[in-house]
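quick one
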Amino acid sequence: MSQTTIRVRKNGPFRIEGDFTILDADDRPFGLAGRTSIALCRCNQSANVPFCDGTHKTTGFLSECPARDLLPPAPKG
Ligand code: FES
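structure w/ FE2/S2 (inorganic) cluster:
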C-alpha cells in the first residue's frame, strides 16, 4: 500500500495522491478510472463537484493554507 498525500494548493484544490478511495454520503465509491491522483474542489464553483474542473482559476478564488501544527485533540469523555 502506498502512502496517501494531500496537498493544499495555493488558491486551488486539494490534490490527493497515492492509495485512496473517495466515497459519497451513502458510502458509494466514485469510479476514478484508475487514477492515482485527483484534485478535489475547494472553491465550491466546479461544475463537477467534488472534483476540481479548473474554474477556481477564473473566479478569483484566494486561499492560502500554510502548514502548521494543530493543538492536540480534546479528550473524549
Ligand atoms: S478548486 Fe478548482 S474548481 Fe474549485
